[in-house]
Write a structure and sequence with these properties.
mainly alpha; two-stranded antiparallel ribbon; 2 strands; elongated
Length: about 190
């Protein structure tokens, strides 16, 4: 059922002739999606047919055979170039890992806690310059940003630990006086 508009257009001689041009059709979103999917599928099937792959059936198998066909089209030099590229990437990855491990050793040797190693590694990289080792850069970073000791008794406002009296005094007052003496001596 097409929408047609009937227009009367004056013609020569004063008579009115009827112009029956169809009005443009509008499509719903579902129709547009359906048309796009149908056209996309047709173009994929055309491509597969041009590559010598049967368009019917399993597309994963078709894709696998297409990649095999692509690989067969490559020259020996192209394949060798790809292998060299892969080997270079593996070498670069191994060197980066080696450098990271060496930096971790330098950080641990400088007394940086494990939980702060990543932060200090980035900090030390900003201190790196020509002729400066990573260990020297870590030391420079520690000077500007000292590491606060964690888990050490007597830090963070806690009083220092008091050595326990090994010998028990017979009188509890004597024990108190011994502890007081020890504190005064340390103080």
């Amino acid at each position: 059922m097409e929408n047609t508009e009937v227009k009367t257009v004056p013609s020569e001689g004063g008579e009115h002739a009827k112009d029956t041009t169809p009005a443009p059709r509008t499509f719903t979103q579902e129709e547009v999606t359906s048309i796009a999917a149908r056209e996309g599928k047709a173009s994929v099937e055309k491509l597969l047919k041009e590559a010598g792959i049967a368009p019917e059936g399993d597309y994963k198998a078709a894709l696998k055979s297409f990649r095999e066909w692509q690989e067969a089209q490559k020259t020996a030099a192209e394949r060798q170039q790809e292998e060299i590229g892969k080997a270079n990437k593996e070498r670069d990855d191994a060197l980066a890992e080696k450098t990271r491990l060496e930096q971790n050793i330098d950080l641990l040797a400088a007394g940086i806690p494990k939980d702060k190693m990543d932060k200090y590694a980035k900090l030390a990289e900003t201190y790196l310059a020509e002729g400066v080792s990573f260990a020297q850069a870590v030391q420079a970073a520690k000077v500007d940003f000292p590491v606060k000791p964690t888990g050490v008794p007597g830090t963070g406002g806690n009083p220092p630990p008091v050595a326990r009296v090994v010998e028990k005094a017979a009188n509890p007052k004597d024990r108190i006086s011994e502890k007081t003496t020890q504190l005064i001596e340390k103080g």
